[in-house]
């Protein structure tokens, strides 16, 4: 009996898990995107049912789909669906299964990403915000939170870490005697990130104030939340800041610093990349330090340095020409 698309999808996800060693989150996303396509097309059909015309109709359906928030799907989300489908088709082709050629599916052209970053006084103000105001009457937990927040901000700007990478760091991951440490990023890929003197100093200062045995680098110092977690059944006694907590933390200090535009941990990652490029780093080095698998992703930052190119043009172009 011929296999149906449902069966091939199960085998493909197993292939991603075993041969490709994809993360659980990647498997979850691909199962969702491809499950949506099979639900549209019909999972009991054969791979030959995937035709150019059926994909065209599916793309039209996706573009008109309304999500749970009552909004149409974002263009990049629609592209994620198509990327998953192309990957599935390539897998089928490698198994010599008759279906649509993956290369016939073109992704939707996306506008250039708007990269938001901080520099100059805004950058200095947000980094200084946690310890700008201190009072003798502050509780030990409040003091701990402020030193923690200062260390978080300095580490984000020093390393360009993603918020998910920072949140799960453990104390043993970082050797403060060295200026670098290894981090596991997207897709299980490891890269080396580098610590500034400021980041090392404030992490050491924060850890010096900690009296707990929690192995995580950044933790909550809200006593009530700690007690609630301890009482919760099946909850580990050790917990770390969540990515959402770090996002709130950054937003809080951006507001305190008087920055009116939206600021997130990723803004500090953008600021890190921009700072490197504006100070002479080459794009390939920045790609490696950010952990981008493709140079195309890193190239979103190049337009930021256009003003540097303008200065170079003014300095070096047309020097031999006479002026009227």
UniProtKB/TrEMBL annotation:
Originating species: Candidatus Magasanikbacteria bacterium CG_4_10_14_0_2_um_filter_41_31
Keywords: DNA integration, DNA recombination, DNA-binding
Pfam families associated with the record: Phage_int_SAM_1, Phage_integrase
Gene3D superfamilies on file: 1.10.150.130, Intergrase catalytic core (1.10.443.10)
GO molecular function ontology, one term from the record: DNA binding
Top-level taxonomy: Bacteria, Candidatus Magasanikiibacteriota
UniProt entry tagged with the keyword DNA-binding: yes
Highest taxon, organism lineage: Bacteria
Domain Core-binding (CB): 3-93
Family recorded in the similarity comment: Belongs to the 'phage' integrase family.
One example of a Gene Ontology biological process annotation: DNA integration
Signal peptide positions (record): none
Domain Tyr recombinase: 113-314
Protein name (record): Tyrosine recombinase XerC
InterPro entries named in the record: CB, DNA_brk_join_enz, Integrase-like_cat_sf, Integrase_catalytic, Integrase_recombinase_N, Integrase_SAM-like_N, Tyrosine_recombinase_XerCD
SUPFAM superfamilies with a match to the protein in the record: DNA breaking-rejoining enzymes (SSF56349)
């Amino acid at each position: 009996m011929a296999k149906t698309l449902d069966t091939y999808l199960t085998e493909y996800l197993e292939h991603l898990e075993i041969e490709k060693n994809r993360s659980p989150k990647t498997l979850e996303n691909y199962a969702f995107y491809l499950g949506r396509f099979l639900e549209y097309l019909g999972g009991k059909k054969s791979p030959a049912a995937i035709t150019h015309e059926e994909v065209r109709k599916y793309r039209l359906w996706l573009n008109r789909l309304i999500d749970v928030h009552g909004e149409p799907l974002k263009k990049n989300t629609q592209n994620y669906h198509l990327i998953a489908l192309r990957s599935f088709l390539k897998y089928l082709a490698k198994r010599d299964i008759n279906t649509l050629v993956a290369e016939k599916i073109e992704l939707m052209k996306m506008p250039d990403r708007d990269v938001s970053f901080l520099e100059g006084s805004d950058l200095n103000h947000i980094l200084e915000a946690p310890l700008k105001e201190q009072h003798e009457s502050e509780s030990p937990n409040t003091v701990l939170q402020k030193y923690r927040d200062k260390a978080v901000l300095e580490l984000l700007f020093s390393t360009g870490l993603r918020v998910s990478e920072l949140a799960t760091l453990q104390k043993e991951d970082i050797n403060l005697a060295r200026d670098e440490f290894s981090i596991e990023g997207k897709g299980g890929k490891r890269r080396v990130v580098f610590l500034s003197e400021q980041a090392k100093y404030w992490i050491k200062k924060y850890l010096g104030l900690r009296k707990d045995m929690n192995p995580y680098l950044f933790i909550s110092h809200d006593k009530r939340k700690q007690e609630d977690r301890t009482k919760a059944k099946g909850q580990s006694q050790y917990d770390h800041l969540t990515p959402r907590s770090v996002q709130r933390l950054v937003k809080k200090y951006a507001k305190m610093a008087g920055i009116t535009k939206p600021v997130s941990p990723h803004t500090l990652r953008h600021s890190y990349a921009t700072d490197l490029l504006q100070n002479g780093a080459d794009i390939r080095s920045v790609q490696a330090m950010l952990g981008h698998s493709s140079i195309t992703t890193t190239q979103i930052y190049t337009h930021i340095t256009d003003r540097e190119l303008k200065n170079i043009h003014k300095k070096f172009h047309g020097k031999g020409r006479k002026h009227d």
